[in-house]
Amino acid sequence: MARKVAIVTGASSGIGKQIAKNLFRNGMDVYALSRRVYKMNELDDLGIHTLHLDVSDQEEIEQVVNQIAQEAGRIDVLVNNAGLGTFGSIEEVDLSEGEYEFKVNVFGMVKMIQAVLPTMRQQKSGRIINMSSMDGKLGNLMGAWYVGSKFAIEGISDSLRLELKPFGIDVAVIEPGAISSNWKGIAIDKLMEVSGEGPYAQMARQTSDFFALAYKFASTPRVVARMVDRAALSRRPKTRYVGGAGAKPMLWARRILPDRCMDALNVAMYKYAQKIVNKQTAFNR
Ligand SMILES: NC(=O)c1ccc[n+]([C@@H]2O[C@H](COP(=O)([O-])OP(=O)(O)OC[C@H]3O[C@@H](n4cnc5c(N)ncnc54)[C@H](OP(=O)(O)O)[C@@H]3O)[C@@H](O)[C@H]2O)c1
Which NCBIfam families match (predicted)? Predict the structure, then answer.
């Protein structure tokens, strides 16, 4: 039987790179896509196909997916992993930055789905796996744009699952907690650049301290890649996979606590983190 074909976006680092490796080790023919092709040399060496793709460029998506469909003859799994965290207060993040967050995290994902669907429908099979986050269910201080984009992924995925069931195509959402990668650094740099001074400076520092502490306990990308393996390979995949530092307890708290209690829990966690980080800084002086 022909090898199953998988596409992974955002495969040049962190979670996406590990997902590409895992699916390949599980016997799939893998196409790894990202803008920084040079960062995927090690995937190339393993035998994974690497191609340039900027998911904010709809024409490039069309062209790259057509190329893969022609070359491989089928597409069995699409992992929409590419994403970034635009942090900062709603008042201060420029609307164009917020639009870009959605262009990459949401519209890029939808365009990828549109591009693979004709092939998957023809096959009468396929798996679409969308990278959400525990932030797809939880509000987050200074994280409105990122959180909004991940909430959108959750809603789109739930609706899409209904649409695609009659065609034999399944949709799963991955909800990781804190994972060590480049993501946190990019998000915090953005946060401090936008809100590090001015009326939200204190909240920005609290957020930065919270991330500094939380990411000390971050899980490795392998944890997420294993969730994707299960979503891609199980005979009956679950609709959601939750894992990685903090995800299960936080999503459990979200399910049982009223909104105001959840807000209070968030504030308490951020204050506690700031206290710990300040103590550590004083100790290190
Ligand atoms: N790290 C966490 O704690 C965490 C937790 C929950 C969910 N997530 C989600 O997991 C996904 C992967 O994040 P990560 O932690 O692995 O972060 P990362 O190391 O920063 O990787 C992000 C990936 O997305 C790609 N990307 C960004 N913009 C792109 C664009 N315009 N076109 C194509 N690719 C683009 C990057 O590739 P190029 O720059 O080379 O294009 C890179 O490969 C994201 O969707 C993120 O929201 C992360």
Answer: PRK06182.1 (NF004826)
**Annotated catalytic residue 270:** no
Q: Tell me the pLDDT tens digit for each residue of 94-152.
A: 999 999 999 999 999 999 999 999 999 999 999 999 999 999 999 999 999 999 999 99
Q: Which fold has domain 5-181+219-246?
A: Rossmann fold (3.40.50)
Per residue in 168-227, pLDDT (tens digit) is: 999 999 999 999 999 999 999 999 999 999 999 999 999 999 999 999 999 999 999 999
Contacts of 80 by beta carbon, 8 Å cutoff, 6+ apart: 9, 108, 109, 112, 113, 128, 129, 130, 131
How many angstroms separate the alpha carbon of residue 165 from the centre of ligand 1?
Answer: 28
Burial class (CB in 10 A: 0-12, 13-18, 19+), 259: exposed
Pocket probe mutation, ligand 1, options 19, 146, 181, max atoms within 8 Å of Cβ: 181
Query: By alpha-carbon position, which residue is closest to atom 2 of ligand 1?
Result: 179
CA 101 to centroid of ligand 1, rounded, Å: 11
